[in-house]
Specification:
By secondary structure, the protein is of the alpha/beta class. It contains 11 helices and 13 strands.
């Protein structure tokens, strides 16, 4: 909770890098828990020692009513600190905007949909949504790193909105190459467009793991969220593309060294606390994860938390 004392054992550098970093997407694969379970989980995380790392609750627009019914009792007991919700849009953009506007009018400040996430591959989608966007709502446009990225990012920048990249899924084919992610990040930085990532980022460091929680799940190489966040930091500071790809593909956790003043990679390349704050302001805002416990457990096992 926000009124809990901060854990003094957490380094300032870690807190600067990861505050509000994990948007909870428990309703989505590979977790796919029920609405009551997802809401209970989120309420629990909000009252945990690591609530400072928690971002928004992610829900599809078609399930907003179910979300309200499951969450209303928790929210009524916590009226001073409203739940921030990220809504995944349907194919009917106008309907999504109407539903979000009506939901906010009826339920804020206890529950507020302050962001919408949607795929966009045309100018029309971006221009239409931004023209009719409800007041106080920000859109994260999910863009393909290999399809008209510069042109679409320019529109997103003009509109004052944000971008999104899909970084994985439940099949190996769903994971973009490191070079594609670097291309996306560098383009966002150049266009002054903050962004978020989603899917496949359960673990801090790049690794070879099962892609789902099913028995005998297929395995594949998963990108690490620490790799992504720190690569973004180096991108903001102007490092070359090949260097950024090396950061994304780093698989040895011990070469990421956090201390009170920042983080060092391979004993030589440093991001100070000021630069970590800068990357969170100008670059990556958060990542969507169907698990909140798993990233924390991994960070604990690495001695970062």
């Amino acid at each position: 909770m926000e009124n809990q004392p901060q854990d003094s054992s957490v380094l300032e550098s870690v807190r600067t890098l990861l505050t509000g970093a994990i948007d909870y997407a428990g309703l989505f694969p590979p977790s796919g828990v029920s609405m009551p379970e997802a809401v209970l989980n989120y309420a629990t995380y909000r009252n945990s020692n690591y609530s400072w790392m928690l971002g928004r609750f992610i829900v599809g627009v078609g399930r907003l009513n179910d979300f309200y019914e499951a969450a209303k009792d928790f929210v009524s007991r916590d009226a001073e600190r409203g739940w921030r919700v990220a809504v995944v849009a349907s194919d009917d953009l106008y309907d999504t905007l109407r539903i979000v506007e009506d939901f906010n009018a009826a339920n804020s400040p206890g529950m507020i949909c302050d962001t919408i996430e949607m795929k966009a591959d045309t100018r029309f989608q971006i221009e239409t949504v931004t023209e009719h966007l409800p007041r106080g709502v920000t859109v994260y446009f999910e863009l393909d790193p290999n399809k008209d990225l510069a042109d679409l990012l320019a529109l997103v920048a003009i509109a004052g909105q944000r971008a999104k990249i899909r970084t994985g899924g439940v099949t190996t084919a769903a994971f973009p190459k490191s070079a594609d992610i670097v291309r996306f990040v560098k383009a966002c930085v150049a266009a002054n467009v903050p962004f978020k990532a989603t899917a496949g980022l359960h673990h801090p460091i790049r690794c070879f793991r099962p892609l789902t929680y099913e028995e005998n799940s297929a395995k594949g190489t998963m990108h690490g969220f620490l790799n992504l966040f720190l690569m973004t930091g180096f991108a903001v500071e102007g490092y070359r593309r090949s260097f950024l790809e090396d950061v994304m593909e780093e698989e040895f956790s011990e070469v990421f060294e956090f201390d009170a003043n920042g983080v060092k990679w391979r004993h030589e390349f440093v991001l100070t606390n000021h630069q970590l704050a800068r990357l969170r302001k100008l670059g990556i805002q958060s990542f969507g994860s169907c698990s909140f416990d798993e990233p924390i457990a991994d960070l604990q096992s690495l001695g970062i938390l």
